[in-house]
Amino acid sequence: MPGVIFSLVLSFMVAGFAWLLLGARVQVSSEPEQNNVLNFFVYLLIALPFSIALAFFGMQ
Fold it and tell me: How many CB atoms neighbour CB 7 within 10 A?
């Protein structure tokens, strides 16, 4: 259970930093506000497998 929580928190942090550094690079929606939120979730989905691997395999 702590591994799942750690991987979710790490994913949110990495996605937030990626969104701050890269901005809204992926055009998902025509509305700018919705596009920003969807870009955050795209970055979250990209970061999630790496953080799960780090939480379960890298921190033993």
Answer: 20
For residue 19, the tally of other CB atoms under 10 A from its CB is 19
Domain count, the chain: 1
pLDDT tens-digit profile of 14-52?
999 999 999 888 888 889 899 999 999 999 999 999 999
**Which residues in 39-53 are b (16+ Cβ under 10 Å) and which e?**
bbebbbeebbeebbe
Structure tokens at 46: 């990209």
Q: What is the domain extent for residue 39?
A: 2-58
Coil, helix or strand at residue 4: helix
Q: What is the pLDDT of residue 2?
A: 87
Query: What is the pTM (predicted TM-score) of this model?
Result: 0.84
